[in-house]
Amino acid sequence: MQERFFNYELISDTDRSFIENKYHRQDMPFDGKQRMKYHGYDYDESTGLLDTEIMLGLDELAKKLENEHHYTIKSELFSYILDNTRIDINEHDYFIGIYTWDRVIDKHTIDPWQKEAYAKATLAVGNSKRNDFSKSGTAWALLDFDHTVPDWESLSTLGFVGILERLENSYTAIKSSGAITEKQELFYKCAKREYEALIKFVKRLYAYSLTKSHPKAAIVSESLKHLCEGAPQTTYDMLQLIYIYFMVSESVEHYQVRSLGYGLDNTLYPFYKSDIENRRFSKEEISRFIAYFMMQFSAMGNYWGQPFYLGGTNPDGSTAVNELSYLILDIYDKLGIYNPKIQIKVCKSTPKDFVFKALKMIIGGSTSIVFCNEDIIVKALMRNGATYDDATLAVVKGCYEYALRAKSIGISFNTFNALKPLCFVFSDGYDNVTGKLLGIHTGDVSEFDSFEKFYHAYLAQFDYVINENMKWIYEAEKYINDVNPSLLYAATIPACTEQLRDANDGGIINVSDMLLNGLGTAVDALMAVYELVFEKGVTTLQELKNALDNNWEGFEKLRLRALACKHKYGRGDKLSDYYACAIHNFFASHFIGKKNSHGDNIEYELHSALAFLKQGKSTPATPDGRYNGDEVSKNASPTIGMDTNGLTALIRSVTSMDLSVSDSGACLDCMIHPSTVQGEGGADILYGVLNTYLSLGGASIHFNIFNSEMLKDAQANPDRYKNLQVRVCGWNVLWNNLSKKEQDAYILRAEKIIE
Questions:
Q1: Rounded distance, CA 625 to CA 639, Å?
Q2: Whole-angstrom distance, CA of residue 33 vs CA of residue 601
Q3: Are strands 341-346 and 307-311 parallel, antiparallel or unpaired?
Q4: Which helix (H) or strand (E) holds 668?
Q5: Which residues in 257-294 are b (16+ Cβ under 10 Å) and which e?
Q6: What DSSP assignment string belongs to 389-431?
Q7: Dihedral sign for Cα atoms in the order 744, 745, 747, 748
Q8: What is the rounded distance in angstroms from the CA atom of residue 155 to the CA atom of residue 172?
Q9: How high is the pLDDT of residue 732?
Q10: Can you tell me whether residue 461 is helix, strand or coil?
Q11: CA 391, CA 381: separation in Å to the nearest integer?
Q12: Per-position b or e across 659-695, b if 16+ CB within 10 A of its CB
């Protein structure tokens, strides 16, 4: 990886090693999807209880509260954890330690409450197919607690103390009007309880810091004192506040924090300028604080990565990129980490040298960077009623999702497999996994005498799957406030405080997010039917059905013909691209102008997460030559190995769709051979690719840069490639953490790259 020049040490080897082992031991087995179930080291036993002891205390408290409202139960359990967890102020770290971070609250809150809500939704729908849809890899419907972004503006200007004071002032005003409801009283009481507990927790940290005499203790202590008394005053204070809020929200209250600041650079910049101008901290010291901050998220090892974004545009059209934007990239590059992941909001006003800095990092191996097109973000959000100013200031959260600042929260999501309905056409609606009728009867496929009939049957199957699955999620999301009140989060949101109303109870816009998976493979499968059966007549639908039922065994020549079809998505093939647009628009049409059970937006995201693997495992062989259980295409990308006509053709296929219709996000995974971007002109070439994609209406894009020879060597000699990272979908993972099957898929795609 290319290193940036620092004439000072960002973090000592000893401190770095300590932080890398803070959350889990590096010499022990680790699962990033279960990252919270570990401890790196034991904390001072005088500061609190062990997790097992806290869980016993929660059992006892929950029993006493079992007849109380869910708000009361959650706020009391939340407070108990913060009052009793062990804490740490360590000589090797600038950031506090909280020992109990495994969402132990869930046993008495989300786990039973969600089970109850799901049962109610199933009962309301009647003969719900939700579980069968999930098992079969057809569609996943879930409530969403994983994509929140608190109002960092309120937190940065008010601090925890100010948030509580604002809540109290609002309560006093509403109470004095005589119009307060019982629900408002309850919301106020329980949100207040959580913030009182949070402030008490910070005070406990401050008191403990005063017992320490190591060099970092005085700096940590002063910062905690500021946060005990009011708003953050320095860059370091704000970083500490972000970290504390993150840990308490994500690990105690169970609401993921999916962006660190409103652009980490923009949230920190006022503090940074003030620190430098008033000589509170030097640039060197601030760089060190940021480095230690980033190392926290690197060390946690979240499989999906912890995002933050940089850049963007101000409402007046000027760039939001500032001095700190460059510095953060330099620090990230110097640390050589791949988590947290970085999203960069780009548009015409984004400085070219800033984009080049990021591109050079990517060429150097730091591929945890995704570029998000602000023009598409603005168009997508304005399509749903946002003003231009609000859309311009939108946050990027999670992998690439867009959301309005402090004005919307996700409450549910559905992930649909675009390929499975095509399988139902061949099986007349029956599923290969459950053996049940999960689609509809569209007739004996062998009797279809035109591609039009086959295509219409596919759309009919897909339409049924979408509508049937939406019935269940429509009912389930009615109960999200019962399942997981968002008290800590809601109190940061001005609109929720003004109304004394929880965010996911209609305090702000409550969004349902519909994800589309496997689009590229679905197009290829449709085109294979068109080309093999109706255009060239090399087979019949009956023979093709037989081949698929036998997983291509005995039909190897036909499979090779399927793989060799000319009509493939990702090649700039006009026919394939038209069908991609058609499916894209067909899917979106089910949600445009529709409202969820909270009366708010239903949005569409062309994003797969891990569904491209997991839903693929439950999808039988398909006409494009794919075997039973193989992965499907992900995001806006083509099937692995099918984009054989070069980058220009790939971009032309993806941007043939109006990606602003994907009003919650869409991303292209772009693999490039290293030889393409080597040398002095490499960044120019990559900049040209990026610029072309954005100018043609691309949404988000990230790059994997490697060749098959390197990946094969990495597979054979993992010890030589301990730091090799690849972009999986919306996040990066280490090459050595992938299964052999997953590695083979990347090698296959790398072999297809045109140099």
A1: 11
A2: 30
A3: parallel
A4: strand 665-672
A5: bbbbbbbbbbbbbebbeebeeeebbeeebbbbbbbbbb
A6: HHHHT-EEETTTEEE-TTTEEEEEEEEEETTHHHHHHHHTTB-
A7: positive
A8: 21
A9: 77
A10: helix
A11: 6
A12: bbbbbbbbbbbbbbeeebbeeeebbebbbebbeebbe
Q: For residue 527, how far is the Cα from the chain centroid?
A: 31
SS3 58: helix
pLDDT band at 754 (very low <50, low <70, confident <90, very high): low
At residue 5, the pLDDT reads 57
* 373 beta partners: 346
For residue 620, whether the previous peptide bond is cis, meaning omega lies within 30 degrees of 0, is: no
The helix/strand/coil state of 436 is: coil
Six-digit token string for 422:
């095509």
Average pLDDT over residues 261-265: 98
How far apart CA 240 and CA 292 sit, in angstroms, is 11
For residue 241, give the nearest of 201, 193, 274 by alpha carbon. Answer: 201
Q: Is the dihedral of CA 607, 609, 613, 617 positive or negative?
A: negative
The Cα-based distances of 207 to 79, 88, 193, 200, 210 in angstroms read 18, 11, 21, 10, 5
Which tokens go with 547? 């081949």
Tell me which H or E stretch contains 341: strand 341-346
| pLDDT tens-digit series, residues 439-449 | 999 999 999 99
Q: What is the pLDDT of residues 603-645, one digit of tens each?
A: 999 999 999 999 999 999 999 999 999 999 999 999 988 998 9
- Residues 106-142 have pLDDT tens digits of 999 999 999 999 999 999 999 889 999 999 999 999 9
C-alpha to C-alpha distance for 417 and 133, rounded to whole angstroms? 10
Contact 508, 487 (CB under 8 A): no
**Which tokens belong to 638?**
């083509």
Task: Say how far apart CA 520 and CA 604 lie, in whole Å.
Answer: 16
Q: How many CB atoms lie within 10 A of CB 467?
A: 10
**Three-class DSSP category at 81:** helix
> What per-residue confidence (pLDDT) applies to 2?
40
Mean pLDDT of 506-527: 98
Encode 480-515: b = buried (16+ Cβ within 10 Å), e = exposed: bbbbbbbbbbbbbbbebbebbbbbbbbbbbbbbbbb
Q: Is this prediction's pTM over 0.85?
A: yes
Output the pLDDT for position 726: 79
How many Å apart are CA 300 and CA 321, to the nearest integer? 28
